[in-house]
Amino acid sequence: MTKLAAIVLTKNEERHIGACLDSLAWVDRRVVVDSFSTDRTCEIARERGAEVMQHPFSDYAAQRNVAIDTVDADWLFFIDADERATPELAEEIAGIIAPEDQAVVGWNVPRRNYLFGKLTRGAGYWPDYQMRLLKHGHARYDRPASEIVILDGPAGDLQQPLIHYNYETIAQFRAKQTFRIDFEAMNLYRRGEKCKFYSPYTMTIRHFWWRYVTLKGYQDGLHGLRLCLLLAYYFGFRYYQRLGQMYRSAVKKPPHN
Predict the structure, then answer these.
(1) Whole-angstrom distance, CA of residue 9 vs CA of residue 138
(2) Exposed/middle/buried for 252, CB within 10 Å: 0-12, 13-18, 19+?
């Protein structure tokens, strides 16, 4: 069995996949789990020596669990196509997974986020820990979006960050957030979040305050202000607006005989 496999989920990521895989040259095995891209993503991945498997996308957690069930390796390192692993992170991970009696089964990795081309440290974007390094057989993903990892053992935190080239333009931000609306609203629905007629408005204000004040989005200046306004609009208004639609649809469904 392979010691360490890197897993990259993709859908039309030809712009990023080459550099991402290049930053993983130190990994024993690189596997791209592709959602039937229509660009050169798979071709570029194969040119870089990565394995490519294709699976239809239903939600983020399900796609990651497909990789867990399919790829044989002692450790799995999940990384997105728009992220880059640094040599320092590679060295830290190598030291972490070396002991055979490693008790920790899941490791959080911090991320340095570049949004709209700017390094962002406020609004919750630093250290932005993500559970990405998993001991095989000890972890499953849950929730359709903003997925979480369920571990059957202890977790730890790495020190060296991933580099994340997040949203580059407003249009890209809007497209990604729009794609996630149903998934994020389903998260709220599943945990029983209530939605009143005023919820989209009140939650927009609350989310902006949380991002801009509590999480110190203000320290990134005008960039931070714009980012917090955009995030508040999508989380507070669009997600809760969709949540209300889900509740109304559930009420209208005829009872089962």
Answers:
(1) 20
(2) exposed
Cα-based distances in Å from 12 to 44, 82, 166: 11, 12, 15
Residue 93's beta-bridge partner residues? none
Contacting residues for 127 by C-beta, under 8 A, at least 6 apart: 110, 111, 161
Residue 103 CB-half CA count within 13 A: 1
80 and 15 in a common domain: yes
Q: Please give the structure tokens belonging to residue 173.
A: 């931000």
Tokens (6 digits) for 221: 């200046």
pTM listed for this prediction: 0.88
Range of the domain at 206: 170-252
Q: What is the pLDDT of residues 29-75, one digit of tens each?
A: 999 999 999 999 999 999 999 999 999 999 999 999 999 999 999 99
Amino acid found at 212: Y
Rounded to an integer, what distance in angstroms lies between the CA atom of residue 234 and that of residue 180?
10
> Which tokens belong to 213?
């004040």
DSSP-based three-state secondary structure for 103: coil
Looking only at the bridges linking them, the beta strands covering 73-78 and 83-84 are unpaired
Claim to verify: residue 240 and residue 205 sit in the same structural domain: yes
